[in-house]
Amino acid sequence: MKIICPICKKPTTWEENPWRPFCSERCKLIDLGKWVYEEYRIEGEESKSKEQRVISKEQKTDSKD
Question: Among candidates 41, 10, 42, 2, which has minimal Cα distance to 26?
């Protein structure tokens, strides 16, 4: 089965390809680097700021008393 490498867009075979879904180790490492340097993002709710987390933590502590 032929697939398209998500990085360089070259066609490559799926079977017996140790780097699938990429065509080569180079493309696999490029993809890993994009994750490491946060070039890929998964959409979701905006995270709380540090200040909001501290206030939230203090409120939880106060409610236990």
Answer: 10
Cα–Cα dist 4/61, whole Å: 53
Q: Which residues pair with residue 11 across a beta bridge?
A: 4
For the chain, list the domains and their CATH numbers: 2-64 (3.30.50.10)
> How far is 29 from 23, CA to CA, in rounded Å?
11
Q: pLDDT of 15-53, one tens digit each?
A: 989 999 999 999 999 999 999 998 888 887 776 676 776
Instruction: Specify whether the CB–CB gap between 12 and 2 falls below 8 A.
Output: yes
